[in-house]
UniProtKB/TrEMBL annotation:
Domain annotation Metallo-beta-lactamase: ranges: 46-257
Protein name: MBL fold metallo-hydrolase
Cross-referenced PANTHER family: ENDORIBONUCLEASE LACTB2, METALLO-BETA-LACTAMASE SUPERFAMILY POTEIN
Tree of life domain: Bacteria
Record organism: Nocardioides conyzicola
Segment forming the signal sequence: none
InterPro entries: Metallo-B-lactamas, RibonucZ/Hydroxyglut_hydro, Sec-metab_biosynth-thioest, WH-like_DNA-bd_sf
Length: 351
């Protein structure tokens, strides 16, 4: 769901002067490069991997999706600035989603680089490594959102199980907020649950930079509720984390998706205002009686074009139903709605 006036598809990044996803190792500042890696069949188009140079080797913020085209491009771009995979000493991964984590863990184990990930992502990795896992774990999440037909469609579209070489446990678990030394730099690892339970952003206050992962994106709003095992109030967590990041100095946003952006404060304020509006709209949609997240999602506009729910593809419809359920759960936490678990999904009603 886009909330900026500049859609991600057309956003130019100031470090390159080109569309933000254009291939290259773009210099953000002295000793830091941004490398966009492709995300085939994904509306986000690319993920930005950030390379920090030190006297002892490289630290990468996120790793990309472990697919051949992304691996080859990362190798080529590193070579363009004088490095290779063997120079990578550490990956600081923002969260467990495949476009951030899987190439990091594959390269980390091949080349001996330390892979660090937030402890809150451990339940997700344990679930993926469960030998009894025999179906898409999001199917049950869709059903609790009342999206039963979508759950069946997602189940029918399931292919082979996950490649477990991409879902190895990290070398280092990050817990709480703390400082990390990266060469001569001091980076604050800040726990920002919401998009996922173990999401981290990395702030280098001395240089005025925020490696924001999927927590603060300049042209779109991060998905909420798309995580397993599900958490009770992901939107409440996300908005609290936004407030936490707002308390930091105003920093240049180095996002995982989209162009480098000038003000973390401005973007956080926009994201908070967006979700406050969505909460009000979700509550208004309950006026006709108890509803599921799937039902309420039909009353809302989606993407920057405010498209009708039925115009979305099946995957986006599922994401929208889960995100709407997250808004309704926060309304319950705020005392503005009630919830009841039923065989048809969680039913919400206005107070």
């Amino acid at each position: 769901m886009t909330t900026s006036n500049t859609p991600t598809a057309y956003a130019v990044s100031p470090d390159s002067g080109e569309h933000w996803s254009k291939e290259g190792a773009w210099k953000v500042t002295e000793g830091i490069h941004r490398i966009p890696l492709p995300l085939p069949m994904d509306g986000l188009k690319a993920i930005n991997v950030y390379v920090i140079e030190t006297d002892d080797g490289l630290t990468l913020i996120d790793g990309g999706w472990s697919i051949e085209v992304a691996r080859d491009l990362l190798e080529r771009c590193l070579r363009d600035v004088g490095y290779g995979f063997g120079d990578i000493k550490r990956f600081l991964v923002t969260h467990v989603h495949r476009d951030h984590f899987t190439l990091a863990t594959v390269l980390g184990h091949e080349y001996g680089a330390d892979v660090a990930l937030g402890l809150g992502e451990k339940p997700a990795l344990e679930l993926l490594n469960d030998p009894d896992l025999n179906r898409n774990p999001f199917i049950d999440v869709l059903r609790t959102a009342g999206a039963h037909e979508l759950a069946e469609l997602w189940a029918a579209g399931d292919g082979e199980g996950p490649d477990m070489s991409m879902w190895l446990f990290p070398d280092t678990w990050l817990e709480g907020d703390h400082e990390i030394s990266v060469g001569d730099r001091t980076i604050d690892a800040v726990h920002t649950p919401g998009h996922t339970p173990g999401h981290y952003v990395y702030a280098e206050k001395a240089s005025g930079l925020l490696f924001a992962g999927d927590h603060v994106l300049p042209t779109i709003t991060p998905s909420i509720g798309f995580t397993v095992p599900p958490t009770p109030d992901p939107l409440g967590d996300f908005m609290a984390s936004l407030t936490k990041v707002r308390s930091l100095p105003d920093l240049t946003v180095l996002p995982a998706h989209g162009p480098v952006a000038p003000s973390s404060h401005q973007r956080v304020d926009e994201l908070l205002a967006f979700h406050e509006r969505r909460l009000d709209l979700s509550l208004a949609a309950l006026a006709d009686g108890p509803s599921t997240g799937f039902t309420v999602a039909h009353h809302l506009g989606w993407t920057r074009h405010e498209r009708a729910y039925d115009e979305l593809d099946e995957f986006s419809q599922g994401m929208a139903a889960m995100e709407t359920k997250a808004h309704l759960e926060l309304l319950v936490a705020q005392g503005r709605a009630t919830r009841e678990d039923t065989p048809d999904g969680v039913l919400f009603a206005a107070r």
